[in-house]
Amino acid sequence: MPSLPPAVAEIRRAVRIAIADVPDGAGIVVALSGGADSLALAAACAFEARSRQIRVISATIDHGLQAGSADAAAQASEKAEALGIRSIVRRVSVAESADGPEAAARDARYAALRAIASEEHAAAVLLGHTLDDQAETVLLGLARGSGAASLQGMAPVREDNDRMLWLRPLLSVRRDTTRAFCAASDIEVWDDPHNTDIRFARVRARTRVLPVLEAELGPGIAEALARTAEQLREDAEAFDEMIHETIEDIVEHAEAGISVSVAALAANPAALRNRIIRLVVDSEFGVGLTRVQTLEVARLATDWSGQGPIDLPGCSAHRHGGRIVFTAR
User: Fold this and answer.
1) How many helices, marked H, and strands, marked E, lie in the chain?
2) Which Pfam families match (predicted)?
3) Most exposed: 40, 130, 181, 204, by fewest CB within 10 Å?
């Protein structure tokens, strides 16, 4: 018997590990763009799912942001069908966003994937992000100065509020490996023109910044950035457990919102205090605070001089007696 090409073996193994907890006979949705990453993921899923009777459904999201996008989506669907995977193509509208077109397209894509998974009663959605994508995410987070949460990058496993699993089996796999998988499997890939469009910050990080870092600092930069994300994520998970235990004692429900003890916030170290504030607001109102907003709220506990309410995304914060009260707006 001929030996299995290393790229094929590596990606199949990554998928096998990722779907180990998916029940036999369940369904999974694979996000499929038609590029090498998602095609390698889909092909590996088709192979690994077969022995466990797991239903694999590919979902191709057409953002309609470039000419020929419908044709590209149709071609991705045909490739899925050739792999023995039932395919769904869905067109979405991408609304304008203050966070830019990339974020708006991502939000629309994830909402569509979530809807398809719900319709199909799937146990998980699988995404084809690679180690290179992780490195780019960490680098962009570092450039924005957006803190440890951003530097954690993308989680390999995430459960959303509706208990849907989002899996990224290829976060330890290099992008070149997915191309090698497709070449070894005679799968023709589609190269998204947006992946070479330098208007996008991620493309500039990929094609300009990372190559310079590799050239000037030596090889292994992408792997180092991915390791950093993994270590920060481990630290954050432990930290979050501590915070949840603390919150139980210092948080109370208030009319149209939630309140936190001023004394307890002031007594905690700044890192813990700021994290509590962000977690309370995110849990209650579903919004994230910037560092500036977080520090302004913290001043209600640590530097109180009678300042008035602070307007935040989706809520406001004010000090009332010995508590900071967050109220929906």
Assistant:
1) 13, 11
2) ATP_bind_3, TilS
3) 204
3-state secondary structure of 106: helix
| DSSP percent split of the chain into helix, strand, coil, nearest 5 | 55, 15, 30
User: What pLDDT score was predicted for residue 178?
Assistant: 98
Binding residues are: 33-38
**Domain boundaries, position 107:** 6-217
Q: Which residues are annotated as a binding site for ATP?
A: 33-38
Evaluate if residue 293 carries a pLDDT over 90: yes
The predicted pLDDT at position 1 comes to: 56
Query: Residues 279, 146: one domain?
Result: no
Q: Which residues contact 170 (CB under 8 A, 6 or more apart)?
A: 11, 14, 37, 40, 41, 128, 129, 130, 131, 178
Based on the structure, what is the number of domains in the chain? Answer: 2
Q: Which residue among 167, 193, 217 closes a domain?
A: 217
- List, for residues 232-262, the tens digit of each pLDDT value: 888 888 888 888 878 888 898 887 789 999 9
Domain termination residue (choose one: 217, 245, 270):
217
Torsion region of 100: left, alpha or beta (phi above 0 gives left; psi -120 to 50 gives alpha): left
Locus of tokens 């009663």: 121
